[in-house]
Amino acid sequence: MRNVLVIAGPGGEAFGKKEIDLLTTNIQQDDSRKMSCVGNGVEQIKNEDIANKLEVISHNENPTTIIIEMHGTEKQGQFYFINGDSYISSKELFEIIKSKFKNKSVDILITSCHSGACLHDKDLLPEGSVIGALSQGHESTAGSDVNRFMEAIQGTTEDLTTYNLLKLYLSKLQTRIPPELGISGKEGTLQLDELLRTSIGKKIDRSKVIGLLQESMSLDELESLIAKIETSRDEWGIYAAEYGKAINVCSANEFGKELNSENFRPMAKSSRVMSTSSAFGFFESAFRQSTPVRRKTALDWTMSMLAHDRAYTKDEDGKEVY
User: Fold this and answer.
1) For residues 229 and 247, what is the distance between their CA atoms, to the nearest angstrom?
2) Which residues, given as ranges, of the chain have pLDDT below 70?
3) How far apart are CA 121 and CA 128, in angstroms?
4) What 3-state class would DSSP assign to 259?
5) Contacts of residue 95, Cβ cutoff 8 Å, sequence gap at least 6
6) Of 49, 109, 182, 252, which residue is least crowded by CB atoms under 10 Å?
């Protein structure tokens, strides 16, 4: 049995009671989970309510997962959950969790925009706690990706650890907005797109990956993704719609069935540089779109990819071209 606590603040136009009801209903469909909730996606929540619920949960021996569905923002290096017209800092919330669970580790998944910024405070949690953030500190989470993830929980019988929840989210990801993961007491964080970036052009353990992912992906899809990872020049050879699944392939290759304190390996973010050939490929694809509106949208996206922290490309010899 696993305790699953959903903390749901006011969602505004992005999510509300309907979406939170869907999430909690889907979680409860597996008898191995004991669901509880603070907030309903509409009303503000109180720290006292969170503390009281955590107090009750902490008294049983079952493992605990906390899913936080709230808006978020980063201010001067500190992450804040947006609670209607007030804020709850990640520091504040993590200290509440620590006060109730003491030295008992927990699994945490945060759907908020900019949630990677809260990983600065991860060591305030009980040691060994695994925390997953659906976006890095400088990025916004795509609501459509989160909604697909919520729907997908209905069909899974996997234990809802942070790692398994992230794998499920990545299997439904349709954007290039990768999650970030950290473990309390472990130095550094793992930016999951870095797994893909460092795996490009390298051999994948096919039998290992297929054995781990064959229930969630078809054999043809797995073979195709493995071949792309092994033969692409850079990450831009992977389509956005394949991006999350490709990260899952690399994650299975690196960590196997489970990621924990024993096999966790931090990876700092490297420069996401687009090769010249990939850049031309994106422009060519944009010009082939069927309507002027689609061409403009594709061109705007390509230009944003080149401009956003990757202001140069590389030529065939690896030389930077501005």
Assistant:
1) 10
2) 268-322
3) 13
4) coil
5) 124
6) 49
